[in-house]
Structures are given as structure tokens and as C-alpha cells.
Design goal:
About 0% of the residues lie in helices and about 30% in strands. It has helices spanning about 235-240, 375-380; strands spanning about 15, 30, 50-55, 55-65, 65-70, 110-115, 125-130, 145-155, 160-165, 165-170, 175-180, 195-205, 210-215, 220, 250-255, 265-275, 290-295, 300-310, 320-330, 340, 355, 365-370, 380-390, 415-420. The strands form five sheets. Strands 1, 2, 6, 8, 13, 16, 17, 18 and 22 form a nine-stranded antiparallel beta sheet that branches. The model is unreliable at about 1-25 and about 65-95 (pLDDT under 50).
């Protein structure tokens, strides 16, 4: 395993190390190499398991050229109060779960984060502490890195889709937090303040299948500003010469809502890359951010979601916006977008069209469900999707109860793309 890619772990519950490498281009960097031969729970090559790794909790350590890396599990409660959790239980150990993997790879396994039953606050979390500096010091990112991509599979979690007024709405139930560090603080584990900031990415995900998630450089909000803020690359690209993920010092993933039953999630194929080196340059990052897409083989349906970055706040019904979502078996670009196929949305379609409205005026989430022709899932391993903001003030009147047109102008000639693998063996 490339030592420069090893990352120091600070985790908030039990999780599993094992793999994910897949075929990636030279422009992509893998954060974790869980395909390491012989990797198995308490025998992860290059790492040492300690029953008291840090803060009294078990975890993984690695010594590398004088730097120390650590893994640490502390179950987290809804209130983020670790005093209510039993984090020192002897059975909080990393074990292997090689039974599942992202559909983008045919070998290895994935990391699993799960409730042990020792904590009554069922809300699995995983925290990754990257070490003594941000990602660019780890040779993971470069000046153009503007995407973090991973596959996510949640199990046992309550669905985020709720009904109101006879309509289905997506609610946030998964949270990805990122801590950025820059300037004089880049070599320190700084507390939040100048040079160090906490940003939020919220998702509304359905459990039961692998989802491909793409995070970009425009989080939904930052700590201390718990509403909508103008999306931006912070610290600003023009000030530092580095994209968002170059400043990434640590991140965590967690199920945000208190669960009544044991729940878990799996993470695989964590990669960083630049859109300049792929088929998707010059995308419309401002209007569309943090998309995900997934296929439920058991129900033969797809879901796709994203966050509306063009909406800067407000709670009235005039804040709605509209999007054009398309798919293809070949890469979609700004130039060929119109030739790709529109999805036929099951939820939140603009009357008489296949355009998709944002589901509710008080949250950024765009979401819908749709189907593709059976021959697509049967004969293709790689599907491409693109989302385009087509909002025009007063246009695209939506269904009741939000039967008004778009609340603002935000149409763009640029798209936001995301792809999805369908592993040919059919395993999910």
C-alpha cells in the first residue's frame, strides 16, 4: 500500500476495513486502498491494532516516517454527547465484511460502519482524521481537484421519504461533514475559527442498495450559518490557488436521525479527481451540488437526487426551481446533453413535461424516482446521468400544494454529471 495514501483514522464506531480499488484513471486518487492482499479486520497490513489507540478507545495505528496515524471508535449520540455512549466496550473491534462491495469493482470488500447494540443511541458514525495537515500534503489532491466520489449503501435505516398533502417528500437523513484547514493553520489540528472551518453536506437517501455520491466544492452551509448561503469554494480559489478538497483536513459520515433499530452503512471507492481530466469539464457547480444516483434491482427502479445551489434562502412557495434530468449509455457533455434521453419522473414532474421540480420550498433537495428500459440494466454495465438547471422565474408551474412557477431565474447552459456502475454479476 502506498504509504503516502495512508490516512489517520478517528472513528466514531465500529467499522470494517477492506477494499475498493477498481480501474481508475491516472487523474483519480484513491483515499483508501481496501483491496490490500490479506487485509482482514485485526490483520490489516502495515497497521497495528491497539485496544487503547486514543482517548481510551480501540483503533488502528500506523507509524510512517515519524508521523503517527490512528483509528478510534466512539459511538456518537443524537446530541453528539459521548458521555451518554459506552465507547470503551471490548467488542468495539474492526472486523471483516467481504460479502459486499461497490458495483464499480468485482473484487474485495468495503468499509462497514454499524451499531453494536451496546449503545442505545442507534446512529452509526465514522470520523476520519487525516493527520497533521490537509489532503494536498498527503499527495491525494492537486490544484484542480474538485470532486470527492464514493459509493454508499445504507441498511436498517428509516426511509427519508415522508408523505404530506398526499405528496412524497425527501427529508435529510445522512450527513457528511468536512473540516477545512488553510493558511497558517494548514499544519495544525486547529479548532474552528480563522483558517479552519466546518462545512455540511446533507443527503436524503433510501436504504437497501448502493448509491453513487459525488461531493463537490460547494457545501450546503457552514457551521454557524445554519441556513442557505451563497455557494462558494471556501477558502476561495482565487485567494489560495487551491480547490475545496485540497484544504480537507478531516471528515465524518453519519446517519443523522435517531434510529429505533440497529442500522449500518457501507462506504467504498472513495476517490478524488478533477473534472478537467474527465468528460465533464466546466459543469454548472453553482446550481447543482452533491448529487447521488442508485438502482434498486429488487424493485427495478432508479432514484436520483441533488441539492439546489441556486437557491439562497427563503421559506415561501416562490422559491421553487426546475431541472432537466437525462441519461445515456455513453458520457453526457454540455454539447450532447439534448441528445440524451430524459427520465420519466415518478414524483415532482412539471405537469405535461418530464422536467423535475425541487420537491419542497424549504429545503434544497431535488429528488425523484424513475425507470429505465429493462434492456439497459440487462445489457449495460455503466450508465451516465446529467442534471441541468432550467429555472425561469414564473415558469414551470408545479403540482399542488406548490402550484406556482419558479421563484428565480437560474437557467444554465452547463450541466452536472454523475455515473453509475451495474456490476455484471448482478450482486447488490
Amino acid at each position: 500500500m502506498n504509504k503516502k495514501r495512508m490516512i489517520m483514522f478517528f472513528s466514531v464506531i465500529v467499522f470494517v476495513f477492506l477494499l475498493s480499488a477498481g480501474n481508475i484513471s491516472a487523474a483519480e486518487k484513491v483515499l483508501f486502498d481496501w483491496n490490500e492482499p490479506g487485509a482482514s479486520g485485526k490483520n490489516w497490513p502495515g497497521w497495528t491494532w491497539k485496544d487503547n489507540a486514543a482517548y481510551g478507545s480501540p483503533g488502528w495505528w500506523k507509524i510512517d516516517d515519524g508521523r503517527f496515524w490512528s483509528g478510534n471508535w466512539l459511538p456518537r449520540t443524537q446530541e453528539k454527547d459521548n458521555s451518554k455512549a459506552t465507547g470503551n466496550e471490548s467488542d468495539l473491534l474492526a472486523i471483516v465484511d467481504a460479502t459486499d462491495r461497490a458495483p464499480s469493482t468485482d473484487t474485495g470488500g468495503c468499509q462497514k460502519v454499524y451499531d453494536t447494540g451496546k449503545v442505545k443511541y442507534y446512529q452509526p458514525s465514522w470520523w476520519t482524521l487525516l493527520g497533521d495537515g490537509p489532503l494536498y500534503l498527503r499527495n491525494i489532491t492537486d490544484a484542480d481537484t474538485d470532486r470527492m466520489s464514493f459509493y454508499l449503501k445504507v441498511e436498517g435505516m428509516e426511509k427519508p421519504i415522508f408523505e404530506k398533502y398526499g405528496k412524497k417528500f425527501p427529508g435529510y437523513n445522512f450527513h457528511i461533514g468536512t473540516y477545512l484547514c488553510w493558511g497558517d493553520y494548514a499544519m495544525k489540528w486547529a479548532k474552528e475559527g480563522p483558517g479552519n472551518q466546518h462545512y455540511y453536506h446533507h443527503l436524503a437517501v433510501d436504504p437497501g442498495t448502493w448509491l453513487h455520491v459525488e461531493m463537490d466544492q460547494h457545501p450546503m452551509h457552514r457551521r454557524g450559518v445554519h441556513g442557505s448561503v451563497t455557494p462558494h469554494n471556501d477558502p476561495r480559489l482565487e485567494d489560495s490557488g487551491k480547490h475545496y478538497f485540497e484544504h480537507l483536513l478531516s471528515f465524518y459520515m453519519e446517519i443523522t436521525n435517531l434510529q429505533q433499530n440497529l442500522s449500518s452503512y457501507k462506504v467504498d471507492e472513495i476517490k478524488f479527481y478533477s473534472t478537467k481530466d474527465t468528460y465533464e469539464p466546466d459543469q454548472n457547480d453553482i446550481s447543482i451540488t452533491t448529487p447521488w444516483v442508485g438502482y434498486w434491482r429488487s424493485g427495478d427502479y432508479w432514484e436520483i437526487s441533488w441539492q439546489d445551489g441556486s437557491w439562497y434562502g427563503g421559506t415561501g412557495n416562490y422559491t421553487m426551481s426546475t431541472f432537466d434530468v437525462r441519461w445515456s449509455t455513453s458520457p453526457i457533455t454540455n454539447e450532447n446533453f439534448e441528445s440524451a434521453q430524459q427520465i420519466n419522473p415518478e414524483f415532482w414532474a412539471v405537469k405535461g413535461t418530464n422536467l423535475v421540480r425541487r420537491a419542497q420550498p424549504w429545503k434544497r433537495t431535488g429528488w425523484t424516482r424513475f425507470k429505465l428500459p429493462d434492456e439497459i440494466e440487462q445489457n449495460h454495465n455503466h450508465i451516465y446521468f446529467a442534471i441541468k438547471d432550467v429555472s425561469v422565474e414564473g415558469e414551470h408551474v408545479g403540482p399542488w400544494p406548490y402550484h406556482r412557477g419558479d421563484g428565480h431565474d437560474a437557467p444554465s447552459s452547463l450541466i452536472h454529471t454523475i455515473d453509475y456502475y451495474l456490476r455484471p454479476d448482478g450482486i447488490r
